[in-house]
Amino acid sequence: MNIGIIGYGSMGKMLAENFLAADLVDKDSLYLANRTLSKMQEMEGRAVVCGSNAEVAEQSDFLFLCVRPADIKIILEEISDSVKADALVVSLNGSVSFAQLEKILCKNRALKIAKMIPSVTAEINKSQSLVCYNNRVEDVDKAGLCEILKSLGEVIELPENEIGMGSELVSCMPGFIASIFDVICQSAKKHTEISSEQIVQMVLKTVSATSELMLKKEMTFKDVVSRVATKGGITEEGARVIYEGLPEVVDLMFEKTLEKRKQTTKKVEELF
């Protein structure tokens, strides 16, 4: 099995490192291409560094496209005649639809295409990678891709029309969570002499342990609140403030991010 990766930015690099670490491929079966060749110098001797995108496509059974929406049409045009007939092309662009991908890739033949959205948590093998497939992909292809993506963490299949919201919940969420707890830590610092570093460590370890508790004990968020927030107590007072004030902020967050996603999708439509 040969794996190809076009685009060696943060995501392409992360995939390459994970695939190698999991022994899914060796240096002779991982093919890489990037617009700036110098960025791949570190992979010399660890993978096959190719001089063109078409060269990667010619060799790959699973071909990952890790490029920006603005660049993907050009990449598709470069590789459309070179993709192997039985290969699975995997786009990491949720904003580019199957219809748009097929418009370029499938001019003269039908090809198997998937979309995949990973999370930054793949760096510790804890990603919930989202996948969806066009109607050419068979169960054996799905099984093969899932086996590869297990090196990143869990794999979740969603319909194409739910990939946007799914991305908010798993791909964007680490940034949202980090933002929320950054605000909490900054606010806490105003009321204590405890160092900022210790505050962050205390909060992070509590968040991690709370998540583990909920998953292992199959607890809901309300379960945790009821366990900690005794009637008339301090936690109850704090939880009440959060439930009263935070929903408006979160609703606005999703409104803004989903609107931005629509704008990105519209720009992609104009490209195609």
Q: How is the topology of this model organized?
A:
Layout: E1 3-6, H1 10-21, E2 30-33, E3 48-49, H2 53-59, E4 62-65, H3 69-79, E5 88-91, H4 98-105, E6 112-117, E7 127-133, H5 139-149, E8 153-157, H6 163-170, H7 173-189, H8 196-217, H9 221-228, H10 234-271
Helix pairs in contact: 7-8
In CATH, the topology of the largest domain is named: Rossmann fold
Largest sheet: 8 strands, mixed
Which series of helices and strands comes N to C? EHEEHEHEHEEHEHHHHH
Residues in helix, %? 40-55%
- Estimate nothing, just give the exact number of structural domains: 2
Output the structural class: alpha/beta
Known CATH architecture of the largest domain: 3-Layer(aba) Sandwich
Spatial ordering of strands, largest sheet = 3-2-1-4-5-6-7-8
Tell me the total number of β-strands: 8
How large a portion of the residues is in β-strands, by DSSP E? 5-15%
Large-scale geometry: elongated
- Termini separation comes to 32 Å
Short structural description:
With 272 residues, the protein is an alpha/beta fold. Helices cover 52% and strands 13% of the residues. It is built from 10 helices and 8 strands.
What does this structure look like?
It is a single chain. The chain is an alpha/beta fold and 272 residues long. It has 2 domains: 3-159, 3-Layer(aba) Sandwich (Rossmann fold), CATH 3.40.50.720; 173-271, ProC C-terminal domain-like fold, CATH 1.10.3730. The protein contains 10 helices and 8 strands. It has helices at residues 10-21, 53-59, 69-79, 98-105, 139-149, 163-170, 173-189, 196-217, 221-228, 234-271; strands at 3-6, 30-33, 48-49, 62-65, 88-91, 112-117, 127-133, 153-157. Strands 3-2-1-4-5-6-7-8 form an 8-stranded mixed beta sheet, with helices on both faces. Helix 7 (173-189) packs across helix 8. The longest helix has 38 residues, at 234-271. The radius of gyration is 22 Å and the shape is elongated. The model has no long low-confidence stretch (mean pLDDT 95).
